[in-house]
Amino acid sequence: MLVLGLETSCDETGVALYDSERGLLADALFSQIDLHRAYGGVVPELASRDHVKRMLPLIRQVLAEADCAATEIDAIAYTAGPGLVGALLVGASCAQALAFAWDIPALGVHHMEGHLLAPMLEEQPPQFPFVALLVSGGHTQLVQVDGIGQYALLGETLDDAAGEAFDKTAKLIGLNYPGGPEIARLAKQGVAGRFTFPRPMCDRPGLDFSFSGLKTFALNTWQQCRSAGDDGDQTRCDISLAFEQAVVDTLTYKCRRALKQTGLKRLVIAGGVSANQSLRQGLEKMLGELGGNVYYARPQFCTDNGAMIAYAGCQRLLAGQQETLAISVQARWPMEQLPPL
Ligand code: KG4
Ligand code: ZN
């Protein structure tokens, strides 16, 4: 089955062609980062308008790259939520219009299920069951995954998502949007030990997270340095490193607890923050000690992309899931509501 995947939940237009027999044939992405940078974050109306402009040229591009005719496509998968409603509606309308014109089925995909399954596109995909750490700009969740659509939420953030904490902290110390890659870049030049940030909620039982205090801690540290006249690039690097280490340690600690609680030894990390090198190294070390394995997607499939939507949609379409021509998207959509395959 050849599936066209469309992703428009936030500030990236992603398109891909995935074939159940041949694997990923082509994928293309247009990132709107330059468009939103001047505003320090995503402007929803600008995002929607830009998706409209990019979608059809990107679809033509992947068809050309895969040397495919539109008539060969068997079904279309699109992100139906969670995300920005206006942005989601662009992908959903485009998918439903093309599906109607080509007389093929369309299926709305859960964005976080797309992230969760992205490591399946790699050479050594994880086997079910596993624990998944989903860390994106909007979500931070630990989930026990027994199969596609068999998700038990183990813990989640009570306030900011991990990616959101990276983005907000970066903004407070004068770095560009999106803050995650910027903090990671500066942290490489940071001096370890100059600042020590707290490891939130690690002294409490359970698997929930709280990241908003780290942002305040970073702001206070930055302001103290500024009043002492110490607001140069090195201070930014040192704060970036201390912040990143606090997030990595906290996530690693809770992942270890989740693995212990479930008795599982396979950990999947997915979503934009799973591109972070220090996080990958921290988790690999921990899983090495436990005798388990950590799985993640290549960096461009950690952040938003069309390939993960084409893959997730394909699995559900193969199992016979279909929907009507109604165009419906959801800004909020708990993943546990998805039907099992
Ligand atoms: O999954 P994603 O592309 O979009 C959402 O679904 O939210 O994740 C975007 C988030 C942003 O907050 C971004 O700052 C963060 O992922 N991010 C990173 C890195 N690359 C992206 N955070 C830390 N380190 C990175 N290398
Ligand atoms: Zn995402």
**Strand coverage percent:** 15-25%
Please state the structural category: alpha/beta
Order of helix and strand elements from N to C terminus: EEEHHEHEHEEEHHHHEHEH
Distinct compounds present: 5'-O-[(R)-(carboxyoxy)(hydroxy)phosphoryl]adenosine, zinc ion
Radius of gyration: 20 Å
Mean pLDDT value: 97
Distance between the termini: 17 Å
Number of helices: 10
Catalogue the unreliable spans. Answer: none
The amount of helix comes to 40-55%
Which sheet architecture does the biggest sheet show?
5 strands, mixed
Task: Please explain how this structure is put together.
Helix content is 43%, strand content 19%. The model has no long low-confidence stretch (mean pLDDT 97). The protein is built from 10 helices and 10 strands. The protein is an alpha/beta fold and 341 residues long. β4 (75-81), α3 (85-102) and β5 (106-110) form a beta-alpha-beta unit. The strands form 2 sheets. The chain has a 5-stranded mixed sheet with strand order 3-2-1-4-5, sandwiched between helices. It binds 5'-O-[(R)-(carboxyoxy)(hydroxy)phosphoryl]adenosine and zinc ion. Zinc ion binds next to α4.
Key features?
19% strand, 5-stranded mixed sheet, binds zinc ion, 10 helices, alpha/beta, binds 5'-O-[(R)-(carboxyoxy)(hydroxy)phosphoryl]adenosine
Tell me briefly what this model is.
The protein is of the alpha/beta class and 341 residues long.
